[in-house]
From TrEMBL:
It is found in: Secreted. Its cofactor is Fe cation. Belongs to the metallophosphoesterase superfamily. Purple acid phosphatase family. Residues 41-250 form the Calcineurin-like phosphoesterase domain. Gene3D superfamilies: 3.60.21.10. This is Purple acid phosphatase. Keywords: Glycoprotein, Hydrolase, Iron, Metal-binding, Secreted, Signal, Zinc. The lineage of its organism: Eukaryota, Viridiplantae, Streptophyta, Embryophyta, Tracheophyta. Fe cation 2 binds at D80, N118, H212, H247.
């Protein structure tokens, strides 16, 4: 126990965010302050790490411009952070080549909160959570699953790659780093239990879940059936407002037909333009927006309003959506 507590304290110190020890929860919890007026400005990008190629540098440039206008609080990465096979170890130069040397704008020197994607699992999956990366670039932070608490919203970052059956039953020529995952069903059961407990106990005005894989999508990957079966019911039962993901290399907004839940894909950080569509299998859901190219998403959050914008590579707003809640609505 002493070793575990030491490691948690060490992570807390190097991250620079506030760390809360909760004896009743397995998911590690961190805090990030909102602005003085209680609002949050967030940028979301995914599927980006290609050493500047496939327009990654151009997307990063535009992110910097929009980030400056927004006065960003932090950035969310939806995974597939380093192509094609994650990082080889915590000393891999791809970290600088795809991250530090690309996202150089002053507005992007804020904390990045990241999850792992399936490509990240094809390398050293533990490397991206190594404290050594934080020493190499202070804005980097990544764990498999964790909770980020702010004054007005809670973000639940979930490790979705182990849910996909095909990575275990038909990996083709790929080798995945399953350290800490096996036995798989125990890992998934525990993760879902901890997530459900955290969501149920949350009093946040806005509940947002972040994962790499899609739940509902019109992109080439389509719906992820394992998440539809096991994760979606938990989100709906606990009044989650948004599920944010990458995986499909596009920008997308799907609105649930039987709950307030919004499915938001921001996977256009580099290689895109796949030209394939696979519409959601749930006819009750409504696809409000789909763009098969590069770009990113922003969130503006206040106590009673959320505004979402999707941007393309030259800064055009392609889609805008908002919602509101009563300032004194019951949680």
């Amino acid at each position: 126990m002493a070793i575990k507590n030491y490691l948690l304290i060490f992570i807390c110190v190097i991250v620079g965010t506030n760390f809360i020890v909760d004896g009743n929860a397995e998911l590690q919890r961190f805090e990030h302050p909102a602005k003085a007026d209680g609002s949050l400005s967030i940028l979301v990008v995914g599927d980006w790490g290609r050493k500047g190629n496939y327009n990654q540098s151009q997307v990063a440039f535009q992110m910097g411009i929009i980030g400056e206008k927004m006065d960003l609080d932090f950035i969310i990465s939806t995974g597939d952070n380093f192509y094609p096979k994650g990082l080889t170890d915590e000393h891999d130069t791809a970290f600088e080549e795809s991250f530090t040397k690309i996202y150089t704008a002053p507005s992007l020197q804020k904390q990045w909160y990241s999850v792992l994607g399936n490509h990240d699992y094809r390398g050293d999956a533990l490397a991206q959570s190594s404290p050594l990366l934080k020493q190499r670039d202070s804005k980097w932070f990544c764990l498999k699953s964790y909770i980020l608490s702010t004054d007005i919203a809670e973000f639940f970052f979930i490790d979705t790659t182990p849910f996909q059956d095909k990575y275990f039953t038909d990996p083709e020529d790929e080798v995945y780093d399953w350290r800490g995952i096996l036995p798989r069903q125990n890992y998934l059961t525990t993760l879902l239990k901890d997530l459900e407990s955290a969501l149920r106990e949350s009093h946040a005005k806005w509940k947002i879940v972040v994962g790499h894989h899609t739940i509902r999508s019109a992109g080439i990957h389509g719906d992820t059936k394992e998440l539809v079966k096991r994760l979606l019911p938990i989100l709906q039962a606990n009044n989650v407002d948004m599920y944010i993901n990458g995986h499909d290399h596009c920008l997308e907004h799907v609105s649930s037909g039987d709950s307030p839940l919004q499915f938001l894909t921001s996977g256009g950080g580099s290689k895109a333009w796949r030209g394939n569509y696979s519409w959601s299998s749930d006819e009750n859901d409504q696809t409000k927006f789909y763009y098969d190219g590069q770009g990113f998403m922003t969130l503006q959050i206040t106590q009673n309003e959320v505004e979402i914008n999707f941007y393309d590579i030259v800064g055009n707003i392609l889609h805008k959506w908002g919602t509101s809640k009563s300032l004194f609505s019951a949680i």
